[in-house]
Amino acid sequence: MPHVMSVHKFEHFFREAAGLDIDKEDLARLDDFINKEIEGLLIRAQAAAKQNLRDVIEPQDLPITKGLQENIEQFRKFDRELDLKPVLDQMTIRPRLDMDYSVETEAQLPEIAGGLSVALAHVFKIIDPSLKHPFGAEWERATKVFNELT
Protein backbone atom coordinates (compact mmCIF):
# COMPACT_ATOMS: atom_id res chain seq x y z
CA MET A 1 0.00 0.00 0.00
CA PRO A 2 1.42 3.39 -0.96
CA HIS A 3 2.60 5.86 1.64
CA VAL A 4 0.13 8.63 2.70
CA MET A 5 1.94 11.21 0.55
CA SER A 6 1.59 8.89 -2.43
CA VAL A 7 -2.14 8.58 -1.77
CA HIS A 8 -2.46 12.31 -2.38
CA LYS A 9 -0.49 11.99 -5.61
CA PHE A 10 -2.81 9.21 -6.84
CA GLU A 11 -5.86 11.25 -5.87
CA HIS A 12 -4.51 14.14 -7.93
CA PHE A 13 -3.63 11.78 -10.79
CA PHE A 14 -7.14 10.32 -11.07
CA ARG A 15 -8.71 13.78 -10.83
CA GLU A 16 -6.51 14.99 -13.69
CA ALA A 17 -6.82 11.83 -15.79
CA ALA A 18 -10.59 11.46 -15.63
CA GLY A 19 -12.19 13.75 -13.05
CA LEU A 20 -12.47 10.91 -10.53
CA ASP A 21 -12.23 11.03 -6.75
CA ILE A 22 -10.55 8.01 -5.24
CA ASP A 23 -9.61 7.00 -1.72
CA LYS A 24 -7.32 4.51 0.06
CA GLU A 25 -9.72 1.63 -0.60
CA ASP A 26 -9.55 2.42 -4.31
CA LEU A 27 -5.75 2.36 -4.16
CA ALA A 28 -5.88 -1.19 -2.81
CA ARG A 29 -8.12 -2.10 -5.76
CA LEU A 30 -5.75 -0.29 -8.13
CA ASP A 31 -2.83 -2.26 -6.70
CA ASP A 32 -4.68 -5.55 -7.35
CA PHE A 33 -5.70 -4.43 -10.84
CA ILE A 34 -2.20 -3.35 -11.86
CA ASN A 35 -0.56 -6.53 -10.62
CA LYS A 36 -3.11 -8.78 -12.31
CA GLU A 37 -2.68 -6.96 -15.62
CA ILE A 38 1.13 -6.84 -15.39
CA GLU A 39 1.22 -10.55 -14.61
CA GLY A 40 -0.89 -11.26 -17.70
CA LEU A 41 1.37 -9.12 -19.89
CA LEU A 42 4.49 -10.82 -18.53
CA ILE A 43 3.08 -14.32 -19.04
CA ARG A 44 2.35 -13.47 -22.68
CA ALA A 45 5.80 -11.85 -22.97
CA GLN A 46 7.41 -15.02 -21.68
CA ALA A 47 5.64 -17.03 -24.38
CA ALA A 48 6.88 -14.58 -27.03
CA ALA A 49 10.44 -14.77 -25.70
CA LYS A 50 10.35 -18.58 -25.78
CA GLN A 51 8.97 -18.53 -29.32
CA ASN A 52 11.87 -16.27 -30.31
CA LEU A 53 14.32 -18.65 -28.62
CA ARG A 54 15.38 -16.18 -25.93
CA ASP A 55 15.95 -17.03 -22.27
CA VAL A 56 15.21 -13.49 -21.00
CA ILE A 57 12.05 -11.41 -21.44
CA GLU A 58 12.92 -8.33 -23.50
CA PRO A 59 10.76 -5.20 -23.96
CA GLN A 60 9.79 -6.25 -27.50
CA ASP A 61 8.20 -9.38 -26.00
CA LEU A 62 5.65 -7.32 -24.06
CA PRO A 63 2.28 -7.22 -25.85
CA ILE A 64 1.86 -3.45 -25.72
CA THR A 65 -1.09 -2.37 -27.87
CA LYS A 66 -1.38 1.00 -29.60
CA GLY A 67 -3.95 2.11 -27.03
CA LEU A 68 -1.80 1.09 -24.08
CA GLN A 69 1.20 2.86 -25.63
CA GLU A 70 -0.85 6.06 -25.94
CA ASN A 71 -1.90 5.75 -22.28
CA ILE A 72 1.73 5.22 -21.27
CA GLU A 73 2.59 8.45 -23.07
CA GLN A 74 -0.22 10.24 -21.26
CA PHE A 75 1.01 8.82 -17.95
CA ARG A 76 4.50 10.19 -18.66
CA LYS A 77 3.02 13.68 -18.93
CA PHE A 78 1.25 13.30 -15.57
CA ASP A 79 4.35 11.77 -14.03
CA ARG A 80 6.52 14.80 -14.80
CA GLU A 81 4.44 16.69 -12.23
CA LEU A 82 3.45 13.93 -9.82
CA ASP A 83 6.49 11.61 -9.78
CA LEU A 84 4.40 8.44 -9.40
CA LYS A 85 6.83 6.16 -11.21
CA PRO A 86 8.87 5.27 -8.06
CA VAL A 87 5.64 4.42 -6.20
CA LEU A 88 4.40 2.29 -9.10
CA ASP A 89 7.79 0.59 -9.22
CA GLN A 90 7.34 -0.47 -5.59
CA MET A 91 3.69 -1.46 -6.10
CA THR A 92 4.33 -3.58 -9.18
CA ILE A 93 4.97 -7.21 -8.30
CA ARG A 94 7.29 -9.10 -10.62
CA PRO A 95 5.78 -12.59 -10.76
CA ARG A 96 8.17 -15.50 -10.74
CA LEU A 97 8.21 -16.98 -14.20
CA ASP A 98 10.38 -19.52 -16.01
CA MET A 99 12.49 -16.64 -17.34
CA ASP A 100 14.17 -13.58 -15.95
CA TYR A 101 13.35 -10.06 -17.05
CA SER A 102 15.94 -7.93 -18.79
CA VAL A 103 16.97 -4.70 -17.09
CA GLU A 104 15.15 -2.79 -19.84
CA THR A 105 11.94 -4.77 -19.29
CA GLU A 106 12.13 -4.17 -15.52
CA ALA A 107 12.59 -0.46 -16.15
CA GLN A 108 9.45 -0.28 -18.30
CA LEU A 109 7.09 -1.93 -15.79
CA PRO A 110 6.29 1.20 -13.72
CA GLU A 111 5.36 3.17 -16.83
CA ILE A 112 3.25 0.28 -18.09
CA ALA A 113 1.51 0.25 -14.70
CA GLY A 114 0.97 4.00 -15.11
CA GLY A 115 -0.46 3.50 -18.60
CA LEU A 116 -2.80 0.82 -17.29
CA SER A 117 -3.93 3.27 -14.58
CA VAL A 118 -4.71 5.94 -17.18
CA ALA A 119 -6.59 3.37 -19.26
CA LEU A 120 -8.56 2.26 -16.21
CA ALA A 121 -9.52 5.86 -15.40
CA HIS A 122 -10.74 6.30 -18.98
CA VAL A 123 -12.74 3.06 -18.85
CA PHE A 124 -14.54 4.27 -15.71
CA LYS A 125 -15.66 7.37 -17.61
CA ILE A 126 -16.63 5.40 -20.72
CA ILE A 127 -18.83 3.13 -18.62
CA ASP A 128 -20.39 6.07 -16.77
CA PRO A 129 -19.48 9.59 -17.98
CA SER A 130 -21.07 11.15 -14.87
CA LEU A 131 -19.11 8.95 -12.43
CA LYS A 132 -17.26 10.88 -9.73
CA HIS A 133 -16.20 8.16 -7.28
CA PRO A 134 -15.89 4.54 -8.37
CA PHE A 135 -17.24 2.02 -5.89
CA GLY A 136 -17.13 -1.77 -5.91
CA ALA A 137 -19.62 -2.24 -8.75
CA GLU A 138 -17.79 0.22 -11.00
CA TRP A 139 -14.46 -1.42 -10.28
CA GLU A 140 -15.96 -4.80 -11.09
CA ARG A 141 -17.38 -3.56 -14.42
CA ALA A 142 -14.14 -1.83 -15.40
CA THR A 143 -12.01 -4.87 -14.63
CA LYS A 144 -14.43 -7.06 -16.60
CA VAL A 145 -13.81 -4.84 -19.62
CA PHE A 146 -10.06 -5.43 -19.26
CA ASN A 147 -10.60 -9.16 -18.76
CA GLU A 148 -12.42 -9.28 -22.11
CA LEU A 149 -9.59 -7.48 -23.88
CA THR A 150 -6.50 -8.98 -22.27
Structural account:
- This protein is an all-alpha fold and 150 residues long.
- The chain has a single domain (4-149), classed as Histone, subunit A, CATH 1.10.20.
- The chain is built from six helices and two strands.
- It has helices spanning 4-18, 24-51, 66-82, 85-91, 103-127, 136-149; strands at 56-57, 100-101.
- A two-stranded parallel ribbon has the order 1-2.
- Helix 5 (103-127) packs across helix 6.
- The radius of gyration is 15 Å and the shape is globular.
- The mean pLDDT is 93.
Summarize the structure.
The protein is an all-alpha fold and 150 residues long. Helix content is 71%, strand content 3%. It has a two-stranded parallel sheet.
**Roughly how many Å apart are the termini?**
25 Å
Query: How is the largest sheet built, in terms of strand order?
Result: 1-2
- The total tally of domains equals 1
| Amount of helix | over 70%
Percent range for β-strand residues: under 5%
Gross morphology is globular
Describe the largest sheet: 2 strands, parallel
The count of strands amounts to 2
The helix count comes to 6
Multimeric state: single chain
Structural class: mainly alpha
> What's the CATH H-level homologous superfamily?
Histone, subunit A
| Average predicted confidence as pLDDT | 93
The CATH class turns out to be: Mainly Alpha
